[in-house]
Design a protein that fits this description.
The complex is a heterodimer of chains A (57) and B (396). Chain A is of the alpha+beta class and 57 residues long. Chain A is built from 2 helices and 4 strands. Chain A has one domain: 2-Layer Sandwich (Alpha-Beta Plaits), CATH 3.30.70.20. In chain B, strands 1, 2, 8, 9, 10, 11, 17 and 18 form an 8-stranded mixed β-sheet that branches. Chain B has a 7-stranded mixed β-sheet with strand order 6-5-13-14-15-12-16. Chain B has a 3-stranded antiparallel β-sheet with strand order 3-7-4. Classes of the chains: A alpha+beta (57), B alpha/beta (396). Chains A and B meet through helix 1, strand 2 and helix 2 of A and strand 12, helix 6 and strand 16 of B.
Amino acid sequence: MIAVVERCMHCGACVGSCPSNAIYLNEVILSFNSDCTKCGRCVKVCPVGAIRMEAGD
Amino acid sequence: MVDGKYDVIVVGAGPAGSMTAKHAAQKGASVLMIEKRQEIGSPVRCGEGISKASLDEVGIKPDKRWIAAEVDGAKIVSPSGHVFTINERMAGNEVGMVLERVLFDKALAADAANAGAEIKVKTSAVGLKIENGKVRGVKVISHGEPMEFEAGCVVGADGFESQIGRWGGLDTNLKPNDITSCFQYRLTNVDHDFRYCEFIIGSAAPGGYIWIFPKDEYTANVGIGVLLSKIKSPGQVKQLLDRFIAKDERLNKGQPLDAVSGAVSVSPPPDKLVKDGLLLVGDAARIIDPITGGGIAHACISGMHAGKVLGEAAQEKDFSEARLMEYENLLRNRLENKLWRNWMAKEKLITLSDETFDKIIQTLAEVGVEKMSVGNILKVIKSRHPELVKEFEDLI
């Protein structure tokens, strides 16, 4: 599963980079929908390293 | 049930959105502009640099209230410290200023309101209303309440993170080589040269650069952009900037007044920017300059053209793709060649080594450039290092 940690700055770098348009940012709340393919691009693009891929669904 | 009906609904109240709203409203269109944040212009996600010439082009009169600093030029710094200084004599009206975006964005939104546009803040678009493949309006959550609005045309001015286009079937997906991840502090108590915008190139910021843009004598926007395809580990972008600041004696006593992150596209323009009832402007349209990562000027240009075309389309009650193509054609005539050329140049620049950057900047610093242009720069480099220019020659 994908986890967002507290250092998230709500900037939307992940939203615009997501090739499946699976991320939604409502001011400060980041959510992933079922279109997410766990490609990991958001993990890499995040300027502060706030997104992590963890084991399990 | 529908909560309102407009000719044009603009999603996003940055410079592109406000310029669109202003010009459409000036031509008599009914316009609603929505902004997901509770304050237009804040938080700033931008280095805030722009040239004087680009404001002239879009009819925005410089106003002391939103100009933080006017600079004499730019300094390009190579990895081992060679400095090429671009002054006003070489750059003409392209010389820059550093904005106060929190106030600049509000001033442009106020212009839109003054022209007759309605504005809603703390109002997020959550989806499009689509009927028979045509965009008919937008679903929003406004101050926590779900609402629906109908529109002749929905304008995606929703920035780098744009979803409006993709929800409506316009492909704005980017390749990893065309995305730059950014982090910036506004640092005070720094000892920078406040007469110049500074760009540090090379492996300090792989595939991008570090910038020091003065806000005042003691304060500067100090930021970094790194190409996504060159990022090696999560969080590396902030780490690279922190490391640079710690080593730089002018900056390492600086204290942050804010920290912002974000991303910019450094891509060629997308194949399509309009559909029936849908149009994209600004960063959402992927029209950022791929060399500088600058987006404000192009955003204003796209908003101006879009607003004018939408105003006329509203009078004709025709928001078809064929009608909106006038906007796309105007924008492509103005920007397409530049965006492609700068994208191709970027594709080459990201392959250069620190050693090569040193040679190039040292040559430019020593020989000098009479008048700034890609052609003139290449001529100067060729005079000493013909081998370096070979790959770039098709750009002249």
